[in-house]
Amino acid sequence: MTIFVKNAWYVAAWSREIDDQLRRYTILNEHIVMFRKSDGSVAALEDRCPHRLLPLSKGKRIGDTVQCGYHGLTFDGTTGKCTRVPGQTNLPASAYVVSYRTEEKHGIVWIWMGDPDRADPARIFDMPEFTDPNWAVHLGDALHLESNYLNVAENLVDPAHISFVHPTTLGSAASENVPVHVKTDGEAIVAWRWIRDAEPVGFFKAFGGFTGNVDRWHYYYLYTPCTAVIDFGSIEVEKNCAEEDRNQGVRIFALHFITPVTETYTIDRWAHIRNSALEDPDAVERMDAAFRLAFAEDKEILEAVQAEENRPQKRRPIRIAIDKAPLVYRKRINDLLELERTEDLAGDLSPAFVYHD
Fold first, then answer.
1. Which residues, including other chains, have CB under 8 Å from residue 191's CB and lie 6 or more apart?
2. Domain Rieske, which positions (predicted)?
3. Which spans in 166-260 are helix H?
4. Contacts made by residues 240-245, CB under 8 angstroms, sequence distance 24+
């Protein structure tokens, strides 16, 4: 059974998904009703009336409150406190629903699922390219996967699978034996490699206009608990591009905002940011189609893996050299979970214990 990291910002929805209607979302196995309040902000409440447990999403909105559709108990959209119990004047203290902190940024609604006192908006994922006029930003689809979110996230810090899962879209056989580099000492786990002097892959044949061989790269950044950025691109071999000069080539960031729904169901909302075809009105539609094809290939693999994980295991799985980044990722998740399982009361050390570093 998966235990989810609570004290983190997760993507709840694209901003365009939320209007003034009551809509149910499931995040970390919690049902949440969300709607846009009169001031434009997003309300997020536990989607279960504490009286007879009817989902509030089956009730109705009254101003910035939600009225249960069973017996009319009404709850404040900001605090979750009960504001009315029809037929009585007293409001029991236990008559409330949990409210969740939300923030909206770059067309994305983020939700904090843990301790509200620890919800720091500065920790919400961001990139300078979101507001840079030299880059075009597009928020894509929501890919629904019958897979545990850890497997989905690991797939997004794994350049090695590209040659085999995406041989006609994002990869080719030319990269099969190219070493993968891994860095684990920063905020993000990073895995990357360059494929030098090779035929461009299908994606960059379509969008780069390359006719000869290219140097191409994949940089995978995975931020805990589950936001991934894939920086990939191509440039003419003759330019002998240095790693830090990738902006000189056709460069694309594929962003994956992973939302764990249940132990075996994940939503991957994906976006892309590009430095090319900025004036091409058809580029977004064609690029979306290419990404949908590639992500469907991932979906087939990940759901097949999950189906096998659901069956009894006869032996321990093996690990190979390319698993370095996923193993570090699992350790980071476990460390975060351990912090949430325990309470640190060692701030004021007892004089009976003297510590020497």
1. 157, 158, 159, 180, 181, 182, 183, 219, 220, 324, 325
2. 9-111
3. 202-207
4. 240/215, 241/215, 243/194, 243/217
Amino acid at 290: A
Overall fold of domain 129-333 = Naphthalene 1,2-dioxygenase Alpha Subunit; Chain A, domain 1 (3.90.380)
Domains 9-121 and 129-333 share a fold: no
Rounded Cα distance, 198 and 162, in Å? 15
Helix (H) or strand (E) holding 229: strand 227-236
Give the 3-state secondary structure of residue 327.
helix
Tracing tokens 């720091």 back to the chain, one arrives at 120
Summarize pLDDT for 28-56 with one digit per residue, the tens: 999 999 999 999 999 999 999 999 999 99
In a 10 Å sphere around its CB, with 0-12 CB exposed, 13-18 middle and 19+ buried, how is residue 25 labelled?
Answer: buried
N- to C-terminal Cα separation, the chain: 38
List beta partners, residue 144. Answer: 267
CA 17 centroid distance within chain: 16
Phi, psi (degrees; rounded to nearest 5) at 179? -60, 145
Q: Among residues 92, 50, 89, which one has the least CA distance to residue 71?
A: 50
| Sequence ranges of the domains in the chain | 9-121, 129-333
What is d(CA 30, CA 228) in angstroms, rounded to the nearest whole number?
Answer: 23
> Measured between alpha carbons, how far is 194 from 217 in angstroms, rounded to an integer?
4
| Other CB atoms within 10 A of residue 130 CB | 17
The DSSP line for 131-145 is G-TTSEEEEEEEEEE
Biggest CA pair distance of the chain = 80
pTM assigned to the model: 0.91
pLDDT tens column, 261-298: 999 999 999 999 999 888 888 889 989 998 999 999 99
For 298, the token pair is 């991932």
Collapsing DSSP to helix, strand or coil, 52 comes out as coil
